[in-house]
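[job 4471] stage=fold_predict status=RUNNING
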Amino acid sequence: MPTEMSACASCRNPLVLEIEIEDGDAEEDFGAGSHRFETKETVPDDTELPCGCHFHWECLLDAYNITECPSCETSLLTTTSSGQQQIICRLNNEGGVQDALDILPLLAEESYLKAYPEERKCRAYLEFCRNGDLEAVVELLQDEGTKVLRYQDPLGSMHSGLHVAVINAQVEIAWLLLLLSSSLEMSQFPIEVLEVAQQLGIRRERQAEMFDIRSLKDSNGMMAEKHAENIGGVWSSWLQAGLLRPPYL
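[job 4471] inference complete, writing C-alpha cells
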C-alpha cells in the first residue's frame, strides 16, 4: 500500500502541503517600520480513496467525477444499510487523521459550487444557520441583502435557513429569521431578541413587503413547523404559541 509520502495520483507531487506561518514573536526593525518573519511548514495533504489511490484534496476536487477514481477508474460508491450512497476514505491533513470518513457530501458540495459559483454565499448562509453563528448571518445579509433568505438547498432536501435552524435547535437564528422574514407581530418577540437585533443593527422591513419564510416547504413538502413537531423539545413552546405557523394556516 502507498505510504503517506507517496505521490498524488493526479499531479505526481508528494502528498504534502506547504503553508506559511507568521511568527508574531519574531520582529526586526527596518527603518520606519518593522518586519514580521514568516516561516513555512509542511503538513500532510493525503486523501486515500477506497481503491488505494492517493490524492491531494484539491487535486481530487479538480478531477472528481462522482462515481469513479480519477486515476484507476474503480467505482468508489458503496451503500449504507439504509440505502444511502457513500465514499469512505482516509483523510490525513493538518487537522490529523480521519479514518472511515464519508467524503461524498463534501465532494458533491464542491462539485455543485464549481458549476454554480454564484451560490457560494447562499450555501455559507445555510452553514451559518446550522452552526448558530448569528453575527456571521447578519454580516452576510448586510453584504448580500435579504434575497438570501429565500434560498433553499438543492443538495439538502430543499431546506431553507429556517428548516436548518429548527433541525439543529438554533433558537437565536430562528428568531432572527422570523424577525427579518415573517409577518409575526412584533409583540410576539421577546424583548431580549429585539435588544440583540438593535445591537447588531438589524432593521425589520415593512411586514406587508415580506415573504414569510415559515411558508417554505422542503422536497418532502414539510415546512419548518412540521420538523419542529417531529423534534419537540425546545420547539414545544414555539408550537403552542404558533410561532412557526404561516399566517394562512
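[job 4471] summary: The chain has nine helices and eight strands.
[job 4471] exit 0
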